[in-house]
Amino acid sequence: MSTLYMKASPGQISKYVIFSGDPWRVNVFENLMTDVEKVAFAREYNTLTGTYQGVRITATSTGIGAPSAAIAMEEMYECGMEVGIRMGTVMSLDDSLVGDFIIPLGSMRRESTSDFYVEKSYPAIADFELVQALNEAVILNGYKYHNGVQCTMDGYYTDMKTSRFANEKGINPDKTMNQLADLKIIGVDMESSAMLVVGRLMGIKTAVITLATVSQNLNRMLDDVERPKMEALLCKITLDAIVALENK
Fold first, then answer.
1. Could you give all domains of the chain from N- to C-terminal order, each with its CATH number?
2. Which pLDDT belongs to residue 216?
3. What is the pTM for the complete model shown?
4. φ, ψ dihedrals at 167, nearest 5°
């Protein structure tokens, strides 16, 4: 029987699962893997499984935000997932990090989804061995990585970027960003802490690798030519890290 939302069954899913926020980014893996099986594209969940350097790997999507990401974690766990990596984009709090890879050691839990799993004092921490594999894969591909602490939030147009409504209501996302910068937070997203918490509670190896595509309030961003190239590299680096982990 297939899962409720993702329409996947255990035989179709590898023990290694890569989670992309963007459903269309999953299609990049068709150019990187062989023997690709398209499992399903249901709602925001685009899922395929293929082989990369002899290792069977699943790539799927979560859409935006922690609730749908937690559903993806739950349904991939039902299908036998043992290692889960969130692979996506992040807003950096430092303009100089745009174009670099951020591999957090943990994330502040300012989203609410993980609260339904465990009390707020429970930390959102990445698996160290998996972090090391991702660090090494970035270096092998000739790029920079940064380890540190991210923050995961629910309100994009209240905490991360200005909007017409925010301006009308006197909401200033820069105030939130400046507070986080004082706490030495290096990036903000909308999924990581929930996925790290749920993965650790499940007893699976979980980590996050993100590409800094924009900085605070879109002060700096990758252009339309560079961004697709770097997102494709993000996919390759994540695959390389899984192969390294498997070969250990």
1. 10-247 (3.40.50.1580)
2. 85
3. 0.96
4. -65, -40
